[in-house]
Give the backbone structure.
Amino acid sequence: MNTNGNTYTVIYSTVLVVLVAAILSFVSMSLQDKQNKNVKMETISKVLTAAAESDPSVTVDETSNVMQMYADMVTSAFFVDGSGKEVESMELGKDDLNRIEVPTTADLKKQNDLLKKIDGGEKDLLGQLRLPVFIFDVNGEEIRVIPCYGAGLWGPIWGYLAVADDGKTIKGAIFDHKGETPGLGAKIAEPAFYDEFIGKAFSDADTKFAVVKGGNPDDLNTVDAISGATITSQALGRGINLWVKYYEPYLKTVAAAKTEKDLQQAAAPAMEETAGEATINEEE
Amino acid sequence: MKEKINWKEVLLQPIFKGNPVTVLVLGICSSLAVTVQLEGAMVMGLSVIIVTGLSSFVVSLLRNSIPNRIRIIVQLVVVALMVILVDQFLKAYMYSVSKALSVYVGLIITNCIVMGRIEAYALGNKPIPSLLDGLANGAGYALILIVVAFFRELLGSGTLFGVRIIPESFYAAGYMDNGLVILPPMALIILGLIVWVQRSIQKDLQEK
């Protein structure tokens, strides 16, 4: 047979391409569920690790059933907008583990793009923000986990911060990255670095938090940068700062609720009437 | 025409004497990129073995029917198919490793070893020898990857397979991991040293 004729060539390539496409779509479809689950489980394990970091009795590692742990510990998960109002809730998966909903890094990127636009002056987009918040009950302590996202040296970097019920103190942190330099920028994903965040707090000033060179361990609002990875460290600091800035309205309502609760506990049971003023809206 | 195939040569030639990385100097890019950790290097090596083996096998099956004018395109389609399959399986069953390898699994498509072996061997030989030739060449590549990764992980992070090897007391005494080894240029130097060692053993490779 003449394998060099035009007709033969065209038919041959068509059949080959259709065949290959069929194989690929079949494999892709049959593995899709498993791949998505991997991605979801990774996010869940990151969120959980951040939440449980201050409590040594809870460990999250490769052997843990992170989905079960998540469903057991989470008390509520939702999105807030730029004014700190809860706008949408997430499925917690208490009845069916497979239905747990968590935002993907692609969702975080979308929010990050919005945040950058808002920070550039487009304040009318504030209402479109959908910033995720997870609330966990870690052995009786209420821990909120919020994500952050930014552009590192080679690709995106992101992470989760666990915040105490005063809306300021960091109880735990964990970071991840797409492709930072191994041994340098990639160190943001190692405990030696993110453990430094425990006990630090967000500042009331314009710069909420920073990662600085030669950081002083006693300074509440900064952590020490990784030597040799200046760009990654600074990017992480900027990312945290940007995200926390727009979480602030929400975190303030959290803090206000706590102050209210503390006051009540101190004054109870004599002054029960003050409970009526539960919603304090701080404006600056 | 019945040729006698020297099986031993097909299998062993690519591992040492005709190693695709150190002798043919193919696939250098990825051997610099994925050799920071041993685990990643091993999975990458294994992926390349599978891809070279299967693509050589399939192309050899098709070799008499491929229209000569679109030969390279057909080969590319076959190689790309194998690479995507490997990538999909890694994502589903070895997620953490696939994350560490990131784009480099996909870039096996551009690895010259795969196309090189198809052009040089699979197009002119029967499927079974082609399969073995592909597997052996992949193995030769994997071997170099593992050797380079061994030194880079040990000197750069003080670990092997993520397990700490250099004792803490060394660090206390002032020993420091060599950050330079982590960066790609040092991988090239290690690779150069391997080539040097091989050429001083195998005199016939030395250029006059």
